[in-house]
Fold each of these.
Amino acid sequence: MTDSTRTSVSTENREIEELQQQLLTASEKKQLQAIDRLSGLGEPGLTVLKEFLQGGRDREPNLVLGKTYQCLYQNPLTQDFLLAHFPHGIVPFNSELNIDYKPLQQALLTQDFQTADRITLQKLCELAGEAAIERKWLYFSEVDKFPIADLQTIDRLWLLHSEGKFGFSVQREIWLSNRKDFSKVWSKIGWKAEKNWTRYPNEFTWDLSAPKGHLPLSNQLRGVRAFASLLSHPAWSTP
């Protein structure tokens, strides 16, 4: 090994050690940055991410673990590891109606947010029952009866695989911070610009450059009352 090669290896090792420490002890923002950098450093960086994910398996899933899993999921070198240790991801698919949320998880993990949005709306109709599935939209009274576990599962999948940017709970925070004034909420989340509604699908932003709370949409909610019912649901005040 030449001196230049030794220097290069030593520099890379130091960088990985620094990033590992950042991942373990820094702020959430810096942890997320460390994940991106480690995922680009080949096998040594991926090893750090795998160890970190395994170390957090007994903790409540959070944005950092969600991002770690997502980076490993997108890398073909770590597929066997995930299948062996995290075959169902890190968000439990809790459902009172035995609804399958794996398709939603897969779309979110690959950041196919438009597909994830469409699946989310389908799942909301499934929660409401056969009549809603057939008509493809929801009454506010149906939203009120959604199982808490299912709404929390959908929200956690969105939240943890969008770095905390998307999800019903995010939209709720914006709604509450604007005193439940939807005329302000629409512009905050990018659903309306001045007097013009954002047109589906081409005018919506289907990546993380979108405004906070931009997704998921509420195309199948029948009017503001149904959306208000969703944001007022007991799921958001239940641990």
Amino acid sequence: MSAARVVIVDDSPFSIAVIRNILEENGFEVVGDAGTLEEVNQVIAATQPDLVTMDMTLPGTDGLECTRAVHAINPNIKVIVISSMMDDEILKEAKENHVSGYIQKPVDADELLAAIQKAIAFEEIYAELEDEYVEVFKETLKDGLNRMTKTLLTYKNEYELTTDFESRGIAVIIGIIGKFSGRLMIDLSKDTAHALVAAMMKKEPANPNEVTAALAEYANIVAGNACSILNRKNKAFGLRLAPPSIMHGDRMLISQAPFKTVSAVGDTDFGEVLLNVGFKRGEDKWT
């Protein structure tokens, strides 16, 4: 089990001692504890833990308000509720407040460790995806072009896309769903698109609709192959594709995704092609 830095939020010295013993015996570092909302704000800001265990009943506040305070400081901190109370309404409210796990007192060591492992594993899986996806999508774009046109693609530039940008003329966007959601976009000029599709079809496209349909299928192949490779690396990704969307026009502005994406610009025999892809961390689901 990966080590993590933990803050315990509970107003009972007995409960704090029990939870601390379980955590420290299993290699976790308890970096602080808190029993009020004010203490939560102070300790979380000062220690920036990986994870917080959260009691639901606290003087002058409750676990949900304290959870919101934790996430206001750092939304990536995982919160696991440890409470004597557990019913459908409380569980519903906990999920709505982005809690990563919920166990009932008296604390069972195995149950607590399993909840922590699940929360930590989510971060580890996302980190693995973040390390892998750019190169995998670049390779499947390159491989798809080679297979379908017997030509090469050479990447000349790669950068994080942080603003809206003006399309070259045609953009194909495919949503990606699974444990993490994301977006693939392939952007190219109308002339490049026409020449590329002609090479793929080994004949001149009959009309612009045939060009966009072929590009949508190419993007779908690129995204599907990349997701298959990533899923083979880690089945937990569970990546799947949404149907492609195609946009085209003169001076078309493409909105920046609400999460980190990376653009790679490639030179081909048909012109310049931009690949843009990214994933967002999202929230783990628990039952």
Amino acid sequence: MSDSPPEVEVSPAVARTAEDIGSMEIRGAATIAAAAAEALGEQAAGSDADSPEAFRAELRAAARVLYDTRPTAVSLPNALRYVLRDVEGETVERLRASVRASVSEFCRRLDNAQTDLGRVGANRLRDGDTIMTHCHSTDVLACVEAAVEQGKSLSAFVKETRPRNQGHITAEALGELGVDVTLIVDSAARRYLNDVDHVLVGADSIAADGSVINKIGTSGLAVNARDRGTPIVCAAQTIKLHPDTLTGHTVDIEMRDEREVVDRETAEEIGDPEVLNPAFDVTPPRYVDAIVTERGQFPPESIVSLMRELFGESTTEPWAEA
């Protein structure tokens, strides 16, 4: 007879959100974080738990399902940490109300964070500047939007960012802001860096030493930008800081499906080679000029102090509790 606890079923809302995050139907750190928090709220609202212990077990199970979808997108576990660590109450109804309040407060802070970050990042941009972007980042867009609202005219070279072409989303969004956009293939970045005033990238997570984990290709772009003397700025809300790295944990690099790169028929036509499709790479802090957050602008080496201020030294995950 097993002593392991019975498996806890999660709500359809949690399962659906996890599937959408895993398939990248839901993308972008802030969007992922909000979706995860709201899914926990729906789990709580629909719970039939008959005791506080059962209710908490349901929440932890839902958090584990959500957590397992995107190991590199640290905004997801940070959202789960925020919601679960603020849950208090001695009855199911009080716990349910606590979750609802925690989710609401988290989403409110999330909404304000991007606006505040945008204002900070806009201060780096001057009227007439040309930027270069990689992948799709709502934090980068917030900086550009704030600069445009200040009356600054900007132009942009946008890397298409294969294999999923997220740069197309960025190109459309920048065009809607009135930015003059030039879409380029990824391998053309170095050719146009001499015409660029700032490289602006987002982050999926940021390590304690100031390393930036972002869409594959960011590191190469940063090296080329440093060689050309073009400043590279990372725009990232504090929900993207990776507290586990304070204690020496490394960041997992997600490997995505080979079918994003080549379909099965084409693979067979070219000899069926092994296909590697890493989603992210790590840019060392020496290639990053500044990290812009809603709390201000920081040199990479100062991120560890901000991380300790926000998260302390503990990295115990509330969804891992017995």
Amino acid sequence: MAQCKPFKAIAFDLDGTLIDSVPDLAAATNATLAELNLTGCSEEQVRSWVGNGAHVLIERALIFALGEAVEAQRLEAAMPIFMKHYEAHLQRHSKLYDGVINVLEQLHSMGYQLAVVTNKPYRFTIPLLDAFGIGHLFTQVLGGDSLDKMKPDPLPLNHLLQQWQLDKTELLMVGDSKNDILAAKAAGISSIGLTYGYNYGEDIGLSGPTAVCDTFSEVLAHINDSQKVMEQ
């Protein structure tokens, strides 16, 4: 039987999947709160707030600090402050998860098209990927503000399917959050849920990914195993 790949392309989330970025997000969030003369928060709190984009992160931080709902005008006024501080803290304490470079390089050498699909603003995504020496491995990078909608909406994944002219069976989504899994389901593609990232304290398996991996290296093993099944 002729050999064929189960997937032709793989989309990866960024925060909590490739990079542990919470230490820098927490530092920027606390610097924002301090500039606004508000009570700071813990790194663990920030871990439970990330995943839905910068606006939601700062909204949650402000709600915590104020003890009440935040008016839209106040939130919008806080966003430039956060952006300023996060740009200053972008890669001070963040780090790649174990196995990320090795797996990405192997997948790239095997001919898979790789993409990043994140809810992080695009202006921070490219510098962060380049800072860790992995930006060149991706042929598509979509930030949370690159399109009209972001995860859990399927638009970013549908965009990849269209841009790369892929069948839904040929694209795989890898992420640590239910937003990644919900987006994949809505797009009709397979997904891998990672247990080590940021998922609001919930078991990623409850979101129903196609497969669950405890480490990033297991992603490669899962893809290789899937290929062996296709070749039988």
